[in-house]
Amino acid sequence: MKNSTFQQRVSGALRGPLRSLELATLQVNLGYRCNLTCKHCHVACAPSRTESMDRDTADAVLRALESGPADTIDLTGGSPELNPHFRRIVREAHALSKKVIVRTNLAIVHEEGMADLPCFYRDHNVEVVASLPYYVGDDVDRVRGSGTFVKCIAVLRQFYELGYGHSDGGTLNLVYNPRGAFLSPDQTCLEAEYRRELGSRFGVSFTRLFTFNNMPIGRFRDFLRRTGNLEAYQSRLVAAFNPDTLDGVMCRHLLSVGWDGGLYDCDFNQALGLSMCSGLPKHIRDFDGAALEHRDIETDEHCFGCTAGAGSS
Amino acid sequence: MSLRYVIVGFILPSRRPRMGDYYRSEDLDRFTEVGRHSPELFKKFLAWYTAALEPGALSKREKALIAVAVAHAVQCPYCIDAYTKACMEEGMSLEHITEAVHVASAIRGGASLVHAIQARNCSDSISL
Fold this sequence. Notes:
Structural class of chain A: alpha/beta
Number of helices of chain B: 6
Strand content of chain A: 5-15%
Order of helices and strands of chain B: HHHHHH
Structural class of chain B: mainly alpha
Strand content of chain B: under 5%
Shape of chain A: globular
Helix content of chain A: 25-40%
Number of helices of chain A: 12
Oligomer: heterodimer
Largest interface: A-B, 16 and 10 residues
Order of helices and strands of chain A: HEHEHEHEHHEHEHHEEHHH
Helix content of chain B: 55-70%
Number of strands of chain A: 8
Radius of gyration of chain B: 21 Å
Radius of gyration of chain A: 19 Å
Distance between the termini of chain A: 22 Å
Largest sheet of chain B: none
Shape of chain B: extended
Strand order of the largest sheet of chain A: 6-5-4-3-2-1-7-8
């Protein structure tokens, strides 16, 4: 583990290295193929990507879920729905009485063979986490591609009609990402504004809004470098370091599984190929809950993205 | 180009600021250099500035929007940069910022126009 500036700041705040607190969630990246090509994507996903979890690896994930301490599986990508084993994983995890979270871009429902996804989610009690970078169409389309916002709103309406976002219905959480080289606003204030604007403009609602910062990696890093914003953005993240966020950062509560079964401390480390500390299992087939539950976490300068301001996990 | 300009430019080529050197982005980071002279006054200014932008009856978000509108009214490039970013970090978009600039511009335009009454008063006072 290298002694980075981030590690020094963490050591100063925690009087020791960053260690995981529990293994509550298996966050599984099913592949990098996606129907969209979002400008802020830290994994650089696109329709042309071919990386996708195979059957054997999906089986190993389900075995780890059944035998390990995690009570939640969190499916991400790319568009996780494009993986051929996606629905089986959801069904079997649900049958194991595990909480199932799917990170969806919403627009996937408009793709061929995907129209029944909202009902499938409802029937398997799936908690939906949907990316919606803003409540204004032009702003969203600029980041995610022309025509995406209208599709997303249509799908949000479907979810709302199925009971998602109602106080007694399914959980539908939205995710805000800044649309450029600046940090996220206060989550509570923006959630109230999203609720008001999405309700008055489109007649839809949701459960919670999460505000995340963009990680200075992947396609977003390319944007920062190309526009001369990289240095200032990284400095902004470092200056906004907030030690109060350290209890909640995702790496302390989950284990990230890559599309090829590789194990990582978080999805961002996975995108960077930053493996876990030496001595720990490196692949899901070697899963060992006891060894992984309270492990040292591998960090680097990008980790300031999770600790800036109010946090980003 | 006058002979005087050429001579002065020749004698002090590196120290004479050019108009193009005004409003360089990196100069904003040097703002505290202003405090080298009259440091007590600068210290008081900073304390007042900071306090004025703290959330109170108005939220941080509302104050950022006021600031960006005023920045346009006083046409300060540093402030426009700083408070456009602040507005975006408060979850606002160009939709909000543009409306706010219209308000500032409308007040500024109206302030000029309403002085036409002064011209009318003056005209009336000296006319038959």
